[in-house]
Amino acid sequence: MAAPVRLVCLSLPARQLCFHPTAGLRGLAVAAVSVRKPSDGQQHPALCGASSPLVQAIRHTSFFNRLTAEQLWKGVTSVSNAGKKQGRGKGVGKKIAKDLNRGQVIGIGRENMVWPGLNAPVLRGRELIQQHQLPKDEEREAKLIKIRDSQGKFRMLKLDPLERGWSGTKMPGRSIGAPNAIGEDSFEGFDTKVLELKVVTCMTAVFGRKRRMSIFAVTGNGNGLAGFALSKATTVQDAIRKVKNRAGQKLLHIQRYNDHTVFHDFFTQYGATKIYVKKMPEGYGLVCHRAIRTICEVVGIKDLHAKVEGICNVQNMTKAFFLGLINQKTHQQLANEKKLHLVEFRKEQLNFPKVVASPEDSVVRTRAEIPQEEELDLTRYLMGGSCTATTQEVPSTLH
Asked: Where is each S5 DRBM domain found (predicted)?
């Protein structure tokens, strides 16, 4: 049997020595007291008693078991804001993966099964093969690991050419899908494309420099319905979700001529950005800035020529181009406004005049009723007196 433990009360100096934080085991040994021998003649161990117990704080949690593995790895591999300004860690944060499909065979997996028609013939002679399980292939996993290790370093998986943006794998120019459905209304046939992606920061008193992602995108169904929006969020995924849903709530109807081009040439401006748009025949294509070409694709314009002058800011170009599109005038509106016949000359028709619209009230002004200073050229009238800047060629001289 174990010997009983006796509790001995110490004097105040002994207690102070025993529980002094710097005394340690040596202080406890000095503070030991002799115990009277009981009647059985045996000496029992004494336990120092005190009015207040000794409490030692133990931390059971740390950042090792409080944070996830992804957060810990990010803390090791990430770069500080000061380092980013100096150009460090440009490749940090890029998710790269190996091609896990190499070495895989359709119909053969971890469970070694025979699937007639997939990894085995349906008939073997006159025998109809049934689905059954074969013994497990122990070397299959080892072969796959060896193939994946032989791929060398991790490399980015190549994007499909149709999924690429304006510049390789960058976000501007890439498609991010249709906006999310709102109740029973769905956006079938819509496609959203990113026009601009950048990092914006603002200085706050509490959190310091606050970093967010800003995305400018345009959405449309390719049939004259389109809209654009700007959204900001802390992550790219949240910004993409917000911008395509916001663009789907700001749709505009764009009128098109024969569903392939604009109704007429026009000049539009927003801020210091000027755009000169020309109507082109079918089959001409889109000869314009890449941002305007992306907008035309989601709107449904196939033939167009546009020249940008001034500041080539993507947001200004988008706003200016949409202003020009929604301010177009149909042939009938122009005829009613001028009280004249609208005549078109085409090369396909050998430049013979063709009346495309007449006033609805059938009231046409005569030559005597038209003022001499009135502009009758449709292009100059719609351009508002503006014209594109051209460089004058210096005539060559004979020597």
From this structure: 190-254
Mean pLDDT of 373-386: 80
208 has which bridge partners? 204
Q: Quickly tell me which residue has 């803390």 as its tokens.
A: 75
From CA 225, how far away is CA 220, in angstroms rounded? Answer: 5
Fold of 266-383: Ribosomal Protein S5; domain 2 (3.30.230)
Query: What is the Cα–Cα distance from 308 to 305, expressed in whole angstroms?
Result: 10
Question: Where are the domain boundaries for CATH 3.30.230.10 in the chain?
Answer: 266-383
Q: What is the mean pLDDT of residues 292-320?
A: 95
Nearest Cα neighbor of 257 from 342, 180, 196 is 342
**CATH classification (class only), 171-253:** alpha beta
| 354 token code pair | 């063709």
Please enumerate in sequence order all residues whose Cβ is within 8 A of that of 194, keeping only pairs 6 or more positions apart, or say none.
165, 171, 172, 173, 174, 176, 215, 216, 217, 240, 243
Contact 233, 213 (CB under 8 A): yes
Pairing of strands 273-279, 6-9: unpaired
Confidence at 32, pLDDT banded by 50, 70, 90:
very low
Helix or strand or coil: residue 344? strand
Residue type, 134: L
pLDDT, tens digit (0-9, with 9 covering 90-100), for 280-294: 999 999 999 999 999
pLDDT above 70 (res 398) = no
Q: Which of 20-34, 106-120, 270-284 has the highest mean pLDDT?
A: 270-284
Nearest to 299 by CA among 195, 246, 245, 226: 226
3-state secondary structure 16-46: HHHCCCCCHHHHHHHCCCCCCCCCCCCCCCE
DSSP H helical segments within 67-178, as ranges?
69-77, 81-85, 139-149
